[in-house]
Amino acid sequence: MRIEHHDRHPRHVEPQHRRGRPHWAKGQRFEWKKYRHREIHARDYRRYRLQEPPRGHRWVEVDGRFLMVNVATGIIASIFMMH
Question: How many domains does the chain have?
Fold first, then answer.
């Protein structure tokens, strides 16, 4: 989802959907309960050629896309797409 800044309070906007799948962008909020996802455990991220996530972040896989998400805020910090 996109964050739009009007006044002083950001408003969260749902991700745009392309071909029935959400289009993710850095800075959007990932809603853990809303989307089917698979968490990439610490021992698996290298297998997918992903960098080690910083403290407080996790990699999740959604529809062939890997999102690095801040666990506390749900904000997407990075995106990696499999080809």
Answer: 1
What's the rounded Cα separation, in Å, for the pair 12 and 59?
22
Tell me the pLDDT tens digit for each residue of 3-51.
444 445 444 545 555 566 678 899 999 988 888 888 888 778 888 889 9
Q: Would you call 24 exposed, middle or buried from its count of C-beta atoms within 10 A (0-12, 13-18, 19+)?
A: buried
- Listed in order, strand segments (DSSP E) in the chain are 2-6, 9-13, 16-18, 21-23, 38-40, 57-62, 65-70, 76-81
The parent domain of residue 35 ranges over: 2-81
The span from the CA of 67 to the CA of 26, in Å, is 9
Q: pTM score, two decimals? A: 0.70
The CATH number covering residue 58 comes to 3.10.450
